[in-house]
């Protein structure tokens, strides 16, 4: 289940969760009609679709964690929908179910909204529509549908982010990923600091090697001189 080279593990782990959720949704029978539910099942697997989004959408890996938060909030609303009919009607959007017909649209939309909320620089809806394989008008409608379904609750606190990272890491261990590759890659500045430290350590080791060799040569010269 290891992701393709250059794709962080969080992408594969989230895709695995969504695949299982879609399978459960398929087993439960007909889902509630929503803008996210297509007429046919997309021909691309959820995991490959998630990897495509990461490769071409230019969003940070953290966006996939935030997308997971949003999708979990939708799932929790669905669990609580009984007895909340008036509130659901007032919210202006139906609670979305996940199955093979909706999972791809839910993924691309949640990642796009997360990128807009998390990243300083991000692509527009038209670009995400091309990445996701949907029309621009549909992408715009899906974004509004998600926002209303979430009741515009987009904020994710550091504690919430850490909690969902821990949940994804737990899924990663259960899925049998090999250590020591982390769930999320380090930020660029931390990665550059790590490389700089490694370069300095290599340079120091090389200097020590040169000094050791020079000292050994000097010792041999002294021994030869004494022997003579």
Automatic annotation (TrEMBL):
GO terms for molecular function: protein kinase binding. It comes from the Eukaryota. Pfam families: Cyclin. One of its GO terms (biological process) is cell division. Residues 179-202 are annotated as: Disordered. Keywords: Cell cycle, Cell division. Gene3D superfamilies: Cyclin-like. Belongs to the cyclin family. Cyclin U/P subfamily. This is Cyclin.
């Amino acid at each position: 289940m290891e992701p393709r080279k250059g794709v962080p593990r969080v992408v594969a782990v989230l895709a695995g969760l969504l695949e299982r959720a879609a399978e459960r949704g398929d087993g439960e029978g007909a889902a509630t009609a929503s803008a996210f539910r297509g007429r046919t099942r997309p021909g691309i697997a959820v995991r490959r679709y998630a990897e495509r989004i990461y490769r071409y959408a230019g969003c940070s890996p953290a966006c996939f964690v935030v997308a997971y938060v949003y999708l979990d909030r939708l799932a929790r609303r669905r669990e609580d929908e009984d007895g909340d009919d008036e509130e659901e009607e007032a919210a202006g959007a139906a609670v979305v179910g996940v199955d093979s017909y909706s999972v791809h649209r839910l993924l691309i939309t949640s990642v796009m909204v997360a990128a807009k909320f998390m990243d300083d620089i991000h692509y527009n809806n038209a670009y995400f529509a091309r990445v996701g394989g949907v029309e621009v008008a549909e992408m715009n409608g899906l974004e509004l549908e998600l926002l209303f379904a979430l009741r515009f609750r987009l904020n994710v606190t550091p504690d919430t982010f850490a909690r969902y990272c821990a949940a994804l890491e737990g899924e990663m261990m259960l899925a049998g990923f090999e250590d020591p590759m982390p769930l999320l890659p380090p930020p660029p500045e931390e990665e550059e600091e790590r490389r700089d430290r490694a370069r300095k350590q290599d340079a120091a080791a090389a200097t020590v090697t040169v000094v050791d060799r020079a000292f050994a040569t000097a010792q041999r010269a002294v021994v030869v001189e004494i022997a003579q």
